[in-house]
């Protein structure tokens, strides 16, 4: 879930602003800092506050650390870090402390993101490194899907996506049904009628036999620390949207973001080279043409996973109009439209 979306008013969960909750957080952070031999050196500052999470910067004698609390729909991030630190330690920051029951994380400072580094957002070599390293992470985790699922990640595999789509289309409140900004009943009927076609697309994708694995589902340059500046691996963060799914669904967001920043046409050779670089780690096991077709299908069907991320983000929101519900509508509508990797566009 992008943390850069801005809307009017306070759309945070009430507890993020509750003094009693904040006192509980401050006490936990103080205990963990003491355990680590650190001391808070100035007042903490609540940097971001959304329905799905809040982030608080805590200055310490050794530099800033970051507290993050996740709402119920994103609680799995803390448990996922336990898996990632054990199985792929070079790809992520190592948490200073985790509270799995409450969905809390205390993280070291990761330095600048790629987006904050001058020129990185349009540097295709940096994007290629990001996609190749991330693909290696996905392949590493293929044998460990059961652990990812046990950590609480949503099942967004091709077999599960049609059910997620049907559940989204049955949720009148989330669809803002027949309101000025929502889905009309007629439009929902059209989307429901498309269900057999969507299910067939998911079956076709599954038929390639590419294993499910970790899928970040919002992989872009503002969710990656720029560790490569010192010769290390890029380190991915903000795993709240992550699912167990088809790995190539990653390309839906990643290619869209780099195309926008670098002003690339979806059919450009530059963008297709990034796709091919990402697919290369699977090249020894699968035919190149099959990988390209699987990527095309994954980008199409993964829009439903993106829509479901918005559902999870507002699970705890009370009231008739969940904030950011427009994200659900946009992704459901987009799933039927052209994608960057359709044959007539490449």
Describe it.
- The protein has about 350 residues and is α+β, with helices and mostly antiparallel strands.
- The chain is built from 13 helices and ten strands.
- It has helices at about 20-35, 75-85, 125-140, 145-150, 160-170, 170-175, 185-195, 195-205, 250-260, 270-280, 290-300, 305-315, 325-335; strands at about 45-50, 55-60, 65-70, 95-100, 105-110, 155, 215, 225, 235, 245.
- A five-stranded antiparallel sheet has the order 1-2-3-5-4, covered by helices on one side.
- The longest helix is centred in the middle third of the chain and has 18 residues, at about 125-140.
- It starts with 18 loop residues before the first helix and ends in a 12-residue tail after the last helix.
- The model is unreliable at about 1-10 (pLDDT under 50).
Distance between the termini: 28 Å
Instruction: State the shape.
Output: globular
- Structural class estimated from helices and strands: alpha+beta
What is the C-alpha radius of gyration, as a whole number of Å?
Answer: 20 Å
Which sequence of SSEs, written as H and E, runs from N to C? Answer: HEEEHEEHHEHHHHEEEEHHHHH
Count the helices. How many? 13
List low-confidence stretches: 2-8
Summarize the biggest pleated sheet: 5 strands, antiparallel
Helix content: 40-55%
Give the total of beta strands.
Answer: 10
Provide mean pLDDT, rounded.
Answer: 91
Percent in strands: 5-15%
- Going across the major beta sheet, what is the strand order? 1-2-3-5-4
Descriptive labels:
alpha+beta; disordered N terminus; globular; 11% strand; 346 residues; three-stranded mixed sheet
